[in-house]
Design a protein that fits this description.
The complex is a heterodimer of chains A (about 325) and B (about 250). In chain A, strands 1-2 form a two-stranded antiparallel sheet. Chain A has one domain. Chain A has about 325 residues and is an all-alpha fold. The termini of chain A are close together. The relative contact order of chain A is 0.17. Chain A is globular. Chain B is of the alpha/beta class and about 250 residues long. The radius of gyration of chain B is 19 Å and the shape is globular. In chain B, the strands form 2 sheets. In chain B, strands 6-7-8-3-9-10 form a 6-stranded mixed β-sheet, with helices on both faces. Chain B starts with 5 loop residues before the first strand and ends in a 6-residue tail after the last helix. Chain B contains 8 helices and 10 strands. In chain B, strand 1 and strand 2 form a beta hairpin. Classes of the chains: A mainly alpha (about 325), B alpha/beta (about 250). At the A-B interface, helix 7 and helix 8 of A face helix 2 and helix 3 of B. The structure holds adenosine-5'-triphosphate and magnesium ion. Magnesium ion binds next to helix 1 of chain B.
Chain lengths: ~325, ~250
């Protein structure tokens, strides 16, 4: 436990120092993407890993966060920070609308239902003129400021904002693990009927877990919109993104606090590198590598890469 | 001691054309140990599932403390104070013994620290002090069954419904289980025990209810029930019963 805390402090210290040592845009950008996906992975892990409700629709929350922010900023000049909040509200609403009927479905049907929901959202935004339809939305270029959530001369502010979001996600998950909610979610994953016999309203707790997952993902969507300053449906709501989140957790360790962190540190550099070296022709190569990785992992270390760190030490 | 803590009133449960429970009625007083016995497929587990609302009974009422609970959800039943175990254990196999009990304890203790304290106390009572950090799936069957009871007990129920606690246990374990059940009764609990085999509960039950083919065929003290002709017939068949009648040797 003590050792874990020291490791975490060293790790976070390294993250704080990293952009001061590496001042080129590319390493900074890579780390920003790692932290973004790690945070989203933690969000996915809460519903998919701990609670065992595999969601292939989490990209929808990312999209809702991004679009809520963009629409409010472009049309009403409202600060993205408020957009972030509104995005969270809409994402939770979506989680509840989807979760209410779908959590009644047993087994894999929830996963299938979330694919449908994700695709519906993608379709709606691709055809919704007000939201820019397939072309998407360009954010207005505003003067650099924290309030405007725009920084043009350096990626550094973005780096530290996502670092805060990432650390907050770890914090949320840390508390989740230690709370009644976290215990109940794990019970629901292992045996829903057994859980009900102990007075657990499984529907309600799945819903709460899904909402937390939605909030974290939505905040990441807002960040992304402000970071890239241009969003369109396939960059924010693609099914592939939901699958990537699942893969990140699977690689790192399902239902483990640092699982998605490790997963993102392996996954994102590979994605960024294939993008850089293979360009658009390389699309899909990263996924081929992951498929291989998952197969190897499934045989060698089915609990995910996290198991390497805990091996030998008591659980 | 409250009379009629739980009243089963004319419960019928159908699976298609099969009548698994047919107009079953009986009542339970606070502090009693009730044995619910009957041959394979008699409808014992089905009745448990009706009481704990895993099944919706087709007709009839179940009154707990005077309120009809027959249309509630399983989680509401537990929250009201009726705990249960399952015939095939449903513990959380990948969690530790302590965590399993904590999940039960969380019902009345929302904070992790309080739930841990309650769970540790419960673990001591059930003899798990040395096994707190073991993975539940690695326990012996007898330990797993006891853990399931401990977990239900941690929700602080008034009634515990235990489905075949003693099946598959050796004589020593059966004895330990009966001791445990008496201890729980001593703490104010009311217990309903489903058993397939009579030996385990006959010495401790206040009353025994016998089901056969979905019908209640007998109710009474253990002595009354083992000498009941219908019960002997249900357990040993007509032929054996006829033979026995010619025989003057006492039962057992
Ligand atoms: N979910 C179900 N669907 C259909 N039939 C069922 C279902 N559950 C039980 N039954 C049937 O109802 C009857 C009573 O079953 P039940 O499990 O209640 O018996 P039991 O007395 O607990 O028997 P055992 O001693 O074998 O556990 C059996 O014929 C069984 O096949
Ligand atoms: Mg049974």
């Amino acid at each position: 436990m003590k050792k874990g805390l020291i490791a975490l402090i060293i790790f976070l210290g390294a993250l704080v120092a990293f952009p001061l040592i590496f001042q080129d845009p590319f390493p900074r950008h890579t780390l920003i993407m790692i932290m973004l996906y790690a945070a989203m992975g933690i969000g996915w892990n809460i519903i998919g890993g701990y609670t065992g409700q595999v969601s292939f629709g989490n990209a929808a929350f990312f999209g809702v966060g991004a679009y809520a922010t963009a629409i409010m900023l472009v049309n009403f000049g409202i600060t993205p920070w408020l957009g972030m909040l509104v995005g969270c509200v809409f994402s939770v609403a979506l989680a509840i609308i989807v979760g209410y009927p779908c959590f009644r479905l047993q087994g894999h049907y929830f996963a299938i239902a979330t694919i449908a929901v994700g695709e519906i959202m993608l379709l709606v935004f691709t055809n919704w003129e007000y939201a820019g339809a397939a072309v998407g939305i360009y954010m207005p270029i505003l003067p650099e400021s924290f309030m405007n959530f725009e920084f043009h001369t350096s990626k550094l502010p973005y780096y530290y904002i996502i670092l805060v979001i990432f650390v907050a996600a770890i914090g949320v998950c840390w508390f989740f693990e230690r709370s009644r909610l976290g215990y109940y979610c794990r019970a629901i994953k292992e045996d829903p009927d057994g859980a009900r016999s102990l007075g657990i309203n499984i529907q309600r707790y799945k819903m709460i877990a899904f909402s937390i997952s939605a909030i974290i993902t939505s905040i990441c969507g807002t960040f992304y919109a402000q970071y890239v300053l241009y969003i369109h449906p396939t960059s924010t709501m693609d099914l592939m993104m939901s699958i990537q989140l699942c893969i990140i957790c699977l690689i790192g360790g399902l239902g483990k606090l640092y699982g998605p962190v490790i997963g993102a540190f392996v996954f994102i550099p590979l994605t960024e590198l294939t993008r850089v070296y293979l360009g658009s022709e390389g699309q899909g190569v990263d996924l081929m590598i992951y498929s291989m990785l998952i197969i190897i992992l499934a045989i060698w270390r089915p609990q995910g890469l996290w198991a390497i760190f805990t091996k030998g030490t008591a659980k | 001691m409250k009379k009629d803590l739980l009243i089963i009133d004319n419960i019928t449960k159908r699976f298609g054309g099969l009548l698994a429970n047919q107009n079953i009625s009986f009542s339970i007083d606070e502090g009693e140990i009730i044995g619910l016995i009957g041959p394979n497929g008699a409808g014992k587990s089905t009745l448990f599932n009706c009481i704990s609302c895993y099944y919706n009974s087709n007709s009839g009422k179940i009154l707990f403390n005077g309120t009809d609970i027959s249309r509630k959800t399983p989680e509401a039943i537990c929250q009201m104070g009726i705990g249960r175990t399952f015939q095939l254990v449903r513990i959380f196999k990948e969690m530790t013994v302590l965590e399993n009990i904590m999940i039960g304890a969380f019902l009345k203790h929302a904070k992790q620290g309080d739930a841990t304290a309650k769970a540790e106390e419960t673990a001591n009572l059930f003899g798990f002090t040395e096994k707190l950090s073991l993975e539940a799936g690695s326990l012996t069957i007898s330990d797993q069954k006891r853990l399931e009871v401990a977990r239900a007990f941690a929700t602080e129920p008034k009634i515990l419904l235990l489905d075949e606690m003693m099946a598959g246990l050796n004589i020593q374990e059966v004895r330990e289980t009966t001791d445990l059940i008496l201890k729980l009764r001593g703490m104010g609990l009311t217990l309903v025990l489903v058993e397939h085999v009579m030996e385990g509960i006959m010495p401790i039950a206040n009353r025994v209810i016998v089901l056969d083919y979905g019908l209640k065929i007998a109710e009474g003290t253990p002595e009354e029930v083992v000498n009941n002709e219908k019960v002997i017939e249900a357990y040993f068949g007509k032929k054996y019963h006829a033979k026995r009648r010619g025989n003057t040797a006492p039962l057992q």
